[in-house]
Amino acid sequence: QVQLQESGPGLVKPSQTLSLTCTVSGDSLTTNYYFWTWIRQPPGKGLEWIGSIGYKGITYYSSSLKSRTSITWDTSKNQFTLQLSSVTPEDTAVYYCEGRYDSGWSLYDYWGQGTQVTVSS
């Protein structure tokens, strides 16, 4: 069973960089057909895709957040990390990490429990 767990500060000051880590257990980040994703949900709004890193290490970003976003991984720790720079109160949200396995004939989707991040001075 694949499990994901987000970690990071719950409070970030405006203009600083938000940094969150997702620790994955039960499978390797580099296993074929996995994509590892960061998603957020601002209060009262729907889910927003932030970006993903694929099993080959290729990253994909939302066009609206691309200039402020970096997703990296540490395969030795089986963790992937989100950095979102120059945050504003509009970046306040519950942040989720997700792992999706799609081989074309099997599809599995795993989510972390989510972590609240508030941007405030």
Describe this structure in words.
The chain is mainly β and 121 residues long. 0% of the residues lie in helices and 54% in strands. It is built from no helices and eleven strands. The protein has strands at residues 3-7, 11-12, 18-25, 34-41, 48-54, 59-61, 69-74, 79-84, 93-102, 107-111, 115-119. Strands 2, 4, 5, 6, 9, 10 and 11 form a seven-stranded mixed beta sheet that branches. A four-stranded antiparallel beta sheet has the order 1-3-8-7, with no helix packed on it. A hairpin with a 4-residue loop joins strand 5 and strand 6 (59-61). It is globular, with a radius of gyration of 14 Å. The mean pLDDT is 97.
Write the SSE topology.
Layout (H helix, E strand, L loop, with lengths): L2 E5 L3 E2 L5 E8 L8 E8 L6 E7 L4 E3 L7 E6 L4 E6 L8 E10 L4 E5 L3 E5 L2
Parallel strand pairs: 2-11
Antiparallel strand pairs: 1-3, 3-8, 4-5, 4-9, 5-6, 7-8, 9-10, 9-11
Key words describing this protein structure:
mainly beta
Q: Give the beta-strand count.
A: 11
**Mass-distribution shape:** globular
Alpha-beta content class: mainly beta
The helical percent reads: under 10%
Uncertain spans = none
Q: Count of helical segments?
A: 0
Oligomeric state of this protein:
single chain
Radius of gyration: 14 Å
User: What is the helix/strand order?
Assistant: EEEEEEEEEEE
Return the average pLDDT rounded to an integer.
97
In terms of DSSP E residues, the strand content is over 45%
User: Biggest β-sheet: count, sense, barrel?
Assistant: 7 strands, mixed
End-to-end distance: 39 Å
